[in-house]
Amino acid sequence: MKLLMGLVLSAVLVTSPWIRASWAEEHSGCMCGMMGHGEPHGGKDAGMHIHMLLKHAKELDLTKEQVTKLKKIDFDRERNRVKTEAEIRVAEMDITAMVEDEKADLTAVENRLKQKAALETGLRMTAIKAGREAHALLTPEQREKAEAEHEAMMEEQHEQMGGMCGEMKKKMGGDHGDSSKKNQREDEPAEHHEH
Question: N or C: more exposed end of the chain, with fewer CB within 10 A?
């Protein structure tokens, strides 16, 4: 089970650079860190925020024009994300191949690393710009409502992820050590009595 969970988590981490970033920042050893905190108007949560605006368009009193523009912003953001993440994966494959090749020129390795870093920076900036463009479309009243919706959504998701993390730790044997110690303590008096 531990091996299976490790493979699944590794696959998820490789797929998205922003999930990797969240994972590293949280240091929680659990998927709770993947959801991201803050940055509702840009960054790794930009797509989530735009989707939330569209989902609650009626509650936020969004006009048809606002909805159309939001959809266009989100489409462009998602298209860029898919394209750039594919390029990042290819760059990582190239880097791995060069590192494994003892004859590979270190300058070439460094250049490829820089190219990958530039792709990751561009991906993040595109998300930030998309989030800000979406936020700029809203009126002050709509922004206030959107902030409340965002906070409620994040709290709900973190609670759900917290429950999933607890279950995952149990399945991975997180409580096994404590149970063993407990059983050992329970057995000790009996063993001592026998001696």
Answer: C
